[in-house]
Amino acid sequence: MTEAILIWKKSASRLALACAIGAGLGMPALAQTMDSALSRAYSANPTLNAQRAAVRATNENVPQALSGYRPRINASADIGASISDSAFPAGAQGPGSPRTQSNARLAPRGAGITIDQNIFDGGKTRSSVSQAESQVLGARAALLNTEQNVLLDAATSYMNVLRDTAILNLNRNNVEVLEEQLRQTRDRFQVGEVTRTDVAQAEARLSQAQSQAILAESNLKTSIARFRQNVGTEPRKLAPGRPVENLLPKSLPAALNIALAGHPAIIAALHGVDAAELQVKVTEADLYPVLGVRGTVAQRYDTQFFGDNRTTASAVATLTIPIYEGGQIYSRTRQAKETAGQRRIEVDTSRDSVRAAVVSAWGGLEAAKAQIVAAQAQVQAAETALAGVREEAKVGQRTTLDVLNAQQELVIARSTLVTAQRDRVVASYSVLSASGKLSAQTLRLKTEPYDARKHYDQVKGLLWGTQVPDGR
């Protein structure tokens, strides 16, 4: 029995660091830190990079809309062959006229340029440009929200690996202790100090511990796979994670005010409303007259006889007044108004979702703090109880089952403490995300920040060219 106590104490000391997630204890050499994992996720996560590509694609809506102010220039050319044979009988061209016959072989050809310039289109181009800019701003806000979700997922994966590693170590050490406990119980059974029931109880508890260790190992493998998915690398010597409570608002009302005023999800929804309302104006513009100017220059050869050529040029003002198009534009306008109403409702939905997320995350953080205090007291009490039960068992005042139960309670208490410490770190990141402030800049990650405005500035004024700014 004394040897089992020594094994348990040795195991408990080895687990002190693993159980102190977020406690700021010693860090292994060349350990992978939370900041390095988040930096890796920020720069290489495929979900985040896909959203950045979506923003770049949305940026192209602006030059497309601006093209409505610019002229349309088209060139055309044609070439062909023309054969003409004619015969006139005598007298056909007047009394006494002889019979005549003629033929002509021509190669009619020409080239021309047409220029169309919009003068007035009912404000369609102006509204389209404003709509495209709103879409860009909304895409940027959606990108910030995706960035938050990616960083939160990476932080959660990081802490899950730490938690499951610590729990696996606890269960493996519990198996070692129970194996020693079973050996001692069998020895005592041989000399008649305990019954066969005590041996069976020790065997059953060992089998249970082995099953829990297998389950803990499976959970760890799952967490490692999630870590690889979210961070992009395999976890290696993870350093203890720490909460980011110093970056959080001081109170729940303050967190709610910050979130409702500037959460990226709400900002994206508001820009969605702007874009939908502008779509109404874009659609309505099809009901208004369109005024433009068309200029043409053309050169023709062999149009009537061999060797002729002529040059024509014209400038014409055109006015198109829609009268009735079957009701399609009216229906599209009504549809656009309903869509705008939907977007306004979605803003309220986003606000409610953000508010609920902040309250939930804040409550989770407060609960995790309280659970840590309770779990620490539980661990201390369980350690004291186990030591006392073992001493009492040596003098026959406690049974083997009492010792096994006390030992199991200590394992549960340590696992509860590990989980509560993990929950505190994750909850602090969740509060920061729910407040709309979880970003590489806020966390001061050592990585180059992605500037969504750079690509916008590069493409906004482009007049031609199919290559994207990176050369593709």
Give a nutshell description of this structure:
With 472 residues, the protein is α+β, with helices and mostly antiparallel strands. Helix content is 63%, strand content 12%.
Question: Can you list the strand order of the major beta sheet?
Answer: 1-4-5-6
What's the order of the H and E elements?
A: HHHHHEEEEHHHHEEHHHH
CA radius of gyration: 40 Å
Please give the oligomerization state of what you see.
single chain
Find the structural class using helix and strand composition. alpha+beta
Shape: elongated
Task: Indicate the proportion of strand residues.
Answer: 5-15%
Give the number of DSSP strands. 6
Helix residue percentage: 55-70%
CATH topology: Outer membrane efflux proteins (OEP)
Query: Briefly, what CATH class?
Result: Mainly Alpha
**Overall mean pLDDT score?**
87
Count of discrete domains: 1
Number of helices: 13
Largest sheet: 4 strands, antiparallel
Low-confidence stretches: 1-29
Structural commentary:
With 472 residues, this protein is an alpha+beta fold. The protein has one domain (2-21, 31-77, 107-459): Up-down Bundle (Outer membrane efflux proteins (OEP)). It is 63% helix and 12% strand. The protein is built from 13 helices and 6 strands. The strands form 2 sheets. It has a 4-stranded antiparallel sheet with strand order 1-4-5-6, with no helix packed on it. Strands 2-3 form a two-stranded antiparallel ribbon. Strand 5 and strand 6 (309-320) form a beta hairpin. Helix 4 runs antiparallel to helix 6, helix 6 packs antiparallel against helix 11 (400-434) and helix 9 (264-284) packs antiparallel against helix 10 (328-394). The radius of gyration is 40 Å and the shape is elongated. Mean pLDDT is 87; it is low at 1-29.
